[in-house]
Write a structure and sequence with these properties.
mainly alpha, three-stranded mixed beta sheet, two-stranded antiparallel sheet, 8 helices, 5 strands, 64% helix, globular
Amino acid sequence: MFYHDISPELLSLGALSIRWYGLFFASGFLLTYLFTRWIFKKEGHPLTDLDSLAIYLFLGMVIGARLGEVLFYNPVYFFSYPLDIIKVWEGGLSSHGAAIGVLVSYLIWLKKHKIKFSKYIDLLVIGMPITAGFVRIGNFFNSEIIGKATNGSWGVVFQQLGEDFPRHPTQLYEADTCFTIFIILFVIYQKYYKKLPPLFMMSLFIFLYFTTRFIIEFWKEKYSLPTDFPLTMGQILSIIPVLFAIGYFIYIYKNGKKQKNPSN
C-alpha cells in the first residue's frame, strides 16, 4: 500500500507556484515533439512543417482539453466560477476534449497549408501516447481522477484528500496503458509502416487508446453523471471513436478482399 501525501506544488515562489501537473504536462509534450521530430527526419519530411504544426496542436490540445473538462464533466462549477476555466495548471483536462481540439487544430493547419489529411497524421499519432501518459502521472500527483476503493490491503491512500483507505491508482493504470500503446505503435511503425494503408496508424491508436480508456473507467469513481447510471462520461465519450476505428478496419478488410478477388 502506498500513502500518497505528495503536495501538488513542486515549488512555491510567493504568489507563483510550479505544480507537478504542469511539469509532467510540459515534459510529455516536449518528449512527444522530440520523438516526432526524429520521425520526420527519418521520413524526409520538412521540419518547418512540424514546428508550425506543433504550435497549432499544442494550442488545440490545451484549449480542447480544458473546454472538454468544462462542458463534459463540470459545467455547473465552471459556469459559476468562469475565471477558474483558465487555471489549466491546476489540472482538469479532458482527454476526449484534447482529442477533439487536436483534430480541429490539425484540420485548420491543413487548410492553411493546403496539405491532405493523411500526409502526416499516421506519424503524429505514434508519439501522442507519451503526452497522454505523462498527463496521467500529473493527475496522480494532483490526487485527481481517482479510482474506486480497493476494499483490500493494497492500493493508494490519497492523504491529500483527507482519506485513510486505499483506492485503485487508475491514473497510473492509464499511464501504463499509454506507454504500452506507444511501444506497440512504434514497433509497428518500425516493421510495417511502409506497407500499411493510409490512416491505419491513426485508427489503431484511436482503437487502443479509447478501448483501454473504456475498460479502466470501470475502476474509476464516477462524477458528472448519476451514480446509478451504468456508464461513466468517459465511457460514453469513448464509444464513438472506438466505433470509428472498428469501421475503418472493417472497410480496409473488405477492400483488401475485393482487391484479392476482383469481380470478372
